[in-house]
Amino acid sequence: MDQLEYLKSVLDQHPELQYSISQRHWSTDFLRFYHSETNYNISKDNITLAAELYKGKKSFSFAIENPERGRTDAAVRDALEVIDKLPEDPDFVDLENDLTLAEPRAVKNNIEAIPLELKTRILANVSAAAAMYDFDIFGTFICNHQTLRLINSNGLDKSSVSSPIYLEVKAVHNKSQVTVLETFGGEDFDFFNEQAFTEDLVQKILYCANPVVDVEPGQYDVVLAPRCLAEFTQYLAYGMSARALDQHSSWFEGKLDEQVFPAHISIVDDPSDPRMIRADYGSDGHIYRRLPLVEKGVFRAFLCNNYFAHKTGLPKNGNTASCLKIEPGDKTLEEMIGGIKRGLYISSLHYMNFINPRETSLTGLTRDGTFLIENGRVTKVVNNLRFTERIERILNNVVELEDHCATVPFSGNYASFEIETVKAPHARVKDFNVTSSTKTI
Amino acid sequence: MELLIRQTLNKLALPEVSFADVRVTRTDEEGIYFMNGFLRNYGSSMDSTAIGIRVLIGGCWGFAGSRDLSGAAIDRLVQTAVSNARQGANFIRGKVEFPALPGIRAEYHHQPQIDPFKMPKEEKTEFLRQLAEAIKPAGKIVHSMVSAQFMRQTKYYANSEGTYSHTSYYNTLPMMEVIASDGGQIQSRTWPGHMSAGRGGFELFTQQKFAENTDRIMKEAIDLLDAPTITDDRADIIINSGHLALQLHESVGHATEADRIFGMEISYAGKTFIKPEMLGSFQYGSPLVNIYSDSTDPKGLGYHPVDDEGVPGQKVDIIKDGILVNQQTSRQIAQLLGLQPSSNMKASYADDFPLVRMTNFCLAPGQGSLEELIASTEHGYLLDFTKTWSIDDNRNNFQFTTEIGYRIEGGKITGIVKEPTYFGITKDFWNSCDAVCGPEEWGYHSTFHCGKGEPGQVMQLSHGVAPARFKNINVSVKI
Fold this sequence. Notes:
With 441 residues, chain A is an alpha+beta fold. Chain A has helices at residues 3-11, 69-83, 110-113, 116-131, 194-207, 226-238, 242-246, 306-312, 333-338, 391-396; strands at residues 18-34, 37-55, 58-65, 135-152, 157-162, 165-173, 179-186, 212-213, 218-224, 267-269, 291-295, 298-299, 324-326, 342-356, 361-374, 377-382, 385-390, 398-401, 406-411, 419-424, 427-437. The N and C termini of chain B lie far apart (55 Å).
């Protein structure tokens, strides 16, 4: 009997309890490289048993790393001893009761499928291509693998497997430090085309042959790379959560079914795209289904888990904005750049933080390639810039979208190393508010 | 545990291994979270062990970590770490090298005044429930939270040079926040601010005067709804300690982590504007600015007798009389820069790879009280309680917003402003410092949440600071 089954058998002896328990086995093979050489190779794994126990409206939770029976027994004893003495949460009603199972799907273990030998061979090839232009490569090549089983006292019993891949290559010029970025993310390495990846990186490197200039603060017509639009949308999704609504910090409060953006803006949380890192279930175990969030500019749904569905009365969906897609438009990138007299191409963003989430105001910086567009052509490299903006204003100022999307991977940066993907097109945005220059590349 | 570590090191005693170290951590953590007056979550993770094995083979690092300390797991980790280093060595251009250090033994065991893990759970929740009740939503207060995180970690470290250390400590992160709304906008106030953690136990709640400040944060959050914003383009600003700790952290602390000079963090955390040739001559700040890294002070979260690659704890001047004189380094990077290693290599848990990290990173005190500093300011703002922070890839251009600003006119506080926002360039900003308050105002402000590295790690660390004044700062950003 595994530890999750054992914990279930222990808790089932206490019919007065409701419980939600899970066991996660996570591992990573992580190659970090700099200056076109290995910085370090890391392999890590852990098994975590987690439990959330309820007795009426009183709750206690615990997690056990590398669980075994003795520690599980001790944790349950500890929980039973204290749970009666804790104050109630009057907003708790019931645990998740959606028993729908996701369609089974085959997930390769990419730690095994992409061995270190293959990673270093690919990186050696990419670095050789970059070296021809005096660029070194820096970045990460990561494969994770996770199995998760979640059980609760309402009869929910669900398992899922994921194995995300994340390849990020930054090419940095050895003298000017001008940087460009190319990434691959997903769960299926068959979609990785080494030649196309390298050619795309080299194409960006070629932009860097232009001189480096500074630009003044002000409002610019900009073309946002898919990564930028994706990241702004991730931040916007904070306000789409029922939790943010409950905290009165959502910009979308009172806007359900209202036109909030232009009709060419549609955003969907879609767990089924094979080019993305997919999701079978939300964190409570609710099945993860396609959820339109913004349709033709109309706000359609809050992301709402079981707890906040009971608390706010909103429909439950269990989505967490983990599989965001921004629908494409009808322009080519060349057309979008070609229509700008003087503006900016922004490749990537850095260190964004909300100033006031209810207003969607934030500040952040450009990174890894900011370019000046003059008379419809990319003409110069620009020092990294600071912007202070409202995301709702940015989306309201989107005037054109590219006719196809790119899959953009993002790595979680705090403790639990999650990898997600977002699909987004290039976007042309008017009046983007640049507030200062960093004076550096 | 010493035996297990030594046995593991013995397995790494291979001719090709030029350096190896093994760490084990055992960690207890507890978190309590009240939302809107009610207990929303009480969680614990006890007796969580982790092991990390790092080897240097052929001039390349290999690492393997796990939460499983069984014999079979350790054998697997040894093989994996060695294999990772061997394979990685196929994609290197230069070899990692550094001089040997003499082996040492170290012990340190900290005890808090009130051990949060011995304190009955119902007693802790009752204390927090009373705080939560005091700031429960009513009127314009629409949301509130009270939280506590407690951590106790025991660490064992040994390396192939014969160093062995065994340490244990307690850290606590207490926090409360209210959000006020007038139906349109929202404003928030926290106590005691962004860097509220400390070395210690439950006593931090009384030391940081939580109960005494519930009414204050509710009043200030409501008052901020009707407060004006700053209309000046530039102003003198006094930054109070809690927020200055973050200003120091972002614009000096991270900037002087020398792994950034060599691009080791480009892929995530970023670079630094600092170049090796700046050491000894670069005027980072005004002559009043003295900044040091100090892993020898046990009052801060960054204390250690030995860092996570065997370097004894040290106090190192980073900026002396305004001049950049040193960096935070690892043994590998110190060798590249021709410096002595500064004892700044740390990993969050044993199964994390050690990185160059701040320990206790401090602005040395100057003279005078905050009251005297305000009295000597003709027109300006006292800024406190971090709301938003952001800094560029090179740690050169920053922008901060605080929850509240106190307007100063004629040496007196005359009102408040909401969301005061300032920005600047690191060198210009620190050179505009014309006063740092004295030792009576100096203290540690600490965080649990310094993110760096990939896979991501969050580090617990401290900043010793006293309030300081900066002249003619750009406060013109309007949102």
